[in-house]
Each structure stands twice: as structure tokens, then as C-alpha cells.
Amino acid sequence: MCGIAGVLGPAEITEPLLGRMLHCIEHRGPDDEGRLVTPTFAFGMRRLAIQDIAGGHQPMWSVDRSAVIVFNGEIYNFKELREELASSGYRFSTHCDTEVIVALYERIGRTDPVAMLNRLRGMFAIAIHDIERDVLFLARDQFGIKPLYLHTIDGRIASFGSEIKSLLEDPSLARRVNDEAVVNYLAFQYNPLTETMFEDIRRVPPATYLLVSPRTGEFTEFPYWSYDFSAPTAATETATQSRIRDVMRDSVEHHMISDVPVGAFLSGGVDSAITVTLMQERRRALGLDNVKTFTIGFDEVSELAEAREVSDRIGSDHHEIRVNMSEYLEVLENIAWHFDEPVADPSAVALYFLARAARQQVTVVLSGEGADELFGGYRIYREPLSLRPISRQPQWVKSSVLAPASKIGASYPGRNYLRRGLTPFDDRFIGNAYIFRPDEMRALWKSDLPTPSHVLPGVELGESIRGFDDLSESRRMQLVDINYWMPGDILAKADRMTMAHSLELRVPYLDMSVASVSSGIPDAWKYRDGTTKWILREAFRDILPSTTAARAKLGFPTPLRHWLKQDPEWFRSRILDDSYIRAQMNVAPIERLFADHASGERDSSRKIYILLMFALWRRAFNAI
Length: 624
Known about the structure:
Glutamine Phosphoribosylpyrophosphate, subunit 1, domain 1
């Protein structure tokens, strides 16, 4: 695991700037640093040594020195690829995955980059200088597990890197706030745009590669993969359960490959329970000691007992971390700095403390991210089933009978149900979090909003994915979350909160072989008996505690709403002292949020937290 950075221009400018950029991301790779400076560009990396500790120094050259690479991530099938390339005559000088990537690029990447990238099973952000063609090849992994950002000037790349903060080392880059991104952040609790919260900085989308001229910065961007529901399984339920067990065991085994200690995060849910159980099975088969597992809790709310139930069953070397309110609030500004952009997911703070504790004993952890998105784990995915009595009605019934009934002023049982059922999918579901809705945003903003509306993922995916509108609503929800929620929130917090402590987090559910199985599972096998991820639970029911197999998702819950009542002034002062908030937003709606929360009229903690993290982000980066 590493952090990479690059900057275009003459050596007298790029060499000192690259040094500052790499120093800024030392937390991503405290073990080593490498640089390459050419007359037209420079790039380098900070290394967290995981594989071939002695031989994995970067930048790394291909055997014929026609290409050179810096790389952030892990390739879990590198041994198989290495054997294949060696059998065809390639002469390797190391035993690390970095050399396999540059060798694969040399063999097939120049002519067929799509085939090359889809051979890679892992997480990655790659930068290769192809000397033969004088081109920079940049690429990001299929799901967006590893980040990659670009600083662009007039549509040309000036620099790139694993974290925004390294790009900000360029003194010519103004730290101007992107108002449109702010509006979208207020709706989603993260920024879903390709453009970041800083003007002139954008992200490379998941499953995308770029061809860049190192002399001019001109670039072309190409998508190379997408999650596709178009091939439903022809297998039976029993056979599919067997396939799920096989691919998950294989994925966990590959994700455990390491030359340094490996542990796992363990919540009280089914996803991490499956992962740690398979890890323990593998370690025992190899004659190794028990897997180290880590969980976190708070006095007010936790899953400590539920996680302990799994740990006791498998006999893991289990560690529990407790965090109180003062500890939580104390680290928020540091967390805002590590995130690069505001992400208002309260569980990110729990992950920060969990990673800090785990790093004292291991260098790599496995976690359960991605299972809900791929196997249908969120309860909202079941909503289309409950709304069928409305969706199946003739249009005249919906417009003449149900629509008027849903607009009756007095509250009555079923009115919200009617409203949900009559609301089009694109307006009803933008992802797992919907914080400030359009009417609330208009009341909050002092003048006209900088954008007419926030992003509508269903509309965007309908325009870019053939057949999207023909999918079931549950599958459309999955694709919304796979393309927006997962890279924008789930994977962003997983990467930033662990890398803050130089800890590598791996996600075995987000494996290409697992994805190929999950994409063919019918909805009827995901949602059954009042639960979600039904077939995943059934596949591993015999190795999990019965209570774990049936448990609903929590995922490191936090007592934010309780703490907000204990010390509301701590939150209020930091929000209302922010100059951007005072300039752009009305104070009265913000004060109402605090009043409503204090009175118990409604839980405003998520709205208050989203404003807080924005204010702390501005302070951390001096964004203007």
C-alpha cells in the first residue's frame, strides 16, 4: 500500500514540488520513498511495505526499460499472473505485484489496456510512463477502492495524486470552494460529483484509465468496466450458495496474502463475521495462530457483545476498543484533514479509532465493505416489494384516487406510504443517505442555489447504462449505491481512516470473482423471510452463530444524537463561526435544527453533523 503523486513541467519546478507532495502523504507510506524526475514531468511514491519488503522499491522499471511505474494498492492474483508471464519468457527481478503490473502493461497494456486492467484482481491507482510512446497511463480500480485525483488547468493535467492535500502543495492552486459540490454534499453527506470540493481538482472515476501527454497535460479518459446485471444465473439456489462459498473462500484466501501481519475488523453483522470465520479456517489449515480481530463500541451504543459472540465461536484473538464523547470530538478536525473533502458519516470516526488500535498489532486488515451493495443488504432495497400494491395499480387509479389521497392535509396512517409509492424512483432514491432535501436546501441557502438541483443518480445512470430503466427498482438501487454511495462514502472512509494510521484495509467482497457471482443473483434470492442478503446468509448459516446470521445491519453505530444533547454549544459554535456558512446560509434554519433536536421534536443530528464536518474541513484546509 502506498501513496503516489506526479506533477508535469520542467525539472526545476517539478522536483521540489514533488518532494513536498510526497512528504504530505507520508502517512500512506512510512517505509520508503522513491522519485523519478524527467525533463517534462516527475512522479514518485510513499511505500507501506506489504509484499517483497526488500525488493519492492518504486519507481520500478520494466525489464526492457520501456516503461516505469508507481503504484498504490495490491494485486491479489499477482502470483498467477507472474507465473503466466514468466512461462512466456518474461524475466522478473523481484517478487512483488508492482513488477507484474508493468510487465503486463508491456505485454498487452499498450495495445489492449481494457484487457490488461480487467486481468488485475485487486485495488489500485496506477501511473505508468510509457517511454516508447511518451505517454502517461493512469488508471483506477474497478470499484474505486483506491483514490486518484487530478489538478487541471484549462482542461489539461498539471498534477495528480492519491490525496488532494498533496496537490494543494502547489502554491499556484487556489483553494476555492466549489459551491455546486457543497450543495450536493449537503444532500448526500459526501460529494458525488467528479469535480471535488475544490475548484480545479477532480477525481478519476472508478474503472477508468487515462492517456496523458507528459509534455502538454492533454488527456483522454476511457471507462473500462462496469457492474452488470445483464447475465442472470441459470443455477439453482443450492448451486448458487455453493458458488458463493467457493468464491468467498477463494477471495479471502487471496486477500490474506502478505509478508506482514494480517487481522480483521469485526462488527456484530454477518459480513465481517463471514470474513473473519473464513480467515480463521485458512489460518488453522496453514497451522498459524488465531486471527486477530478488532471491534469498537461506545458506552451509549455498541456491537461489542455481538462481535464477541462471533469471536468466541471461532476462537479469534479479539480486541475491544471503547471511545467516549470527548475522545470522539477531539479528533474530528484531524479526521476532516485526512478526508480531503468533507464526508459526514459518523461511523468514520469509529473506524479511525479502530484503525489506530489495530495498527499497533497488524499492518493489514480485512473488512466487510461491499457486501451490502453486491448482495442486497440494505433494508431500503426491500421497499419496492412493499410498494407493489401501489406500483401495480393502473395509471388512472394512481392519478385519480391515490394521488389526491396522498395530499390530504391531516396526518393519517398510510399517507407517507402513498407518497413514497407515487414518487418516481429518480426522486425517491439518491442513495443510502438523503440529508438536506431540495426544499430544505432552498430555505438554508441565502440566495439562489448555485445549481438547480443536486445530482439525480437514477437519471445519470439511465443515460449512461443501457437497460438501466428496465431493471427492477431494487437492482437500480444497488447500481446507484455501487456507483455513488460506495466510492463516495463507504470506500472513502475505509481508505482515509485506515491510511491515517498507515494501515492497509482490504475488502474481499469487492473482488472481481465475487462480483461475477453476485451480479447474477435474482432479487427473490436476496430478499426473503423479511430479511436482506438472504442467499449470502444461507450460504454461510452453518458456520455462523444463528443470531449473527439473522441480525440486521448496524455497522459500528455511534451515539451522535445523544452527545448532541449533552453539549450542543460545541457543535453550534463551530458551525456558526464559519465564514462561508455565515455568508451563504441563513442562520435561522440552522438554529431551528438545534432547537428541534433539544426539544426531542425530531432527530437533527445528521443535518447538524453535516454542517459541522463542512466547517471543520474549511478550517483544516483554509478553503476560501
